[in-house]
Amino acid sequence: MLKVFALALAVLAGAANAGAATLGDDGLHKEDWFSLTFRDMREDIEAARAQGKRLAIVFEQRGCIYCKRLHEEVLSDPEVRDYIRGNYMVVQYNLFGDEEVTDLDGEVLTEKKAARKWGIVFTPTVIFLPEEPVDAPVSEAAVQVMPGQFGKMTTLNMFRWVREKGYAGDEHFQTYHARKLQEMRAAGDTLSD
């Protein structure tokens, strides 16, 4: 009887962790829906576009408590995860990594040198790339940057705002976000942030 109980607990624990982020050898939390690429910005933008998606890259680092929260509290939420997975190709970068990256301007450098070149100092930081490659460094080509870890609705609304090309319009993200939250309250939805 005790063995059956232990087996049932193991099955439940496995089911609870299904789809959960895992910790990679590099110390970064991994989502099974993140894309593994050769980190060539032009190719990645084209690959995302071919899938009908936008490219977003996320910088993280080993031991980052905010990165852990992003994965455990935000990206684990089905609404957030499903929206991002359905609309974005996400590629993870290590703030102190040595993997080779090819910038949009053609420069080949390591992840850590790319982070410096692009001005990334916080983790996590999400960089949203344009729909088509341009001849400029990622730091100049980015349509939006989200530095730091935010709650579910702020994160989800940022991804929605970029997908809807809010950056090209007159409605600032904060105004968009406040409007979306107000619409949810009016519909009787409970908000986490």
Could you give a short description of this structure?
The chain is of the alpha+beta class. It has helices at 2-17, 41-50, 65-75, 78-87, 111-117, 138-141, 152-163, 173-186, and strands spanning 22-23, 29-30, 54-60, 88-94, 100-102, 108-110, 125-128, 144-147. It is built from 8 helices and 8 strands; from the N terminus they run αββαβααβββαβαβαα.
Question: What does it look like?
Answer:
It is a single chain. The chain has 193 residues and is an alpha+beta fold. The chain has one domain (21-186): Glutaredoxin, CATH 3.40.30.10. Helix content is 44%, strand content 17%. The chain has helices spanning 2-17, 41-50, 65-75, 78-87, 111-117, 138-141, 152-163, 173-186, and strands spanning 22-23, 29-30, 54-60, 88-94, 100-102, 108-110, 125-128, 144-147. The strands form three sheets. The protein has a four-stranded mixed beta sheet, sandwiched between helices. Strands 1-2 form a two-stranded antiparallel sheet. Helix 4 packs parallel to helix 7 and helix 7 (152-163) crosses helix 8 (173-186). It is globular and about 50 Å long. The termini are far apart. Residues 48-132 form the Thioredoxin-like fold domain. It comes from Propylenella binzhouense. This is Thioredoxin. InterPro entries: SoxW, Thioredoxin-like_fold, Thioredoxin-like_sf.
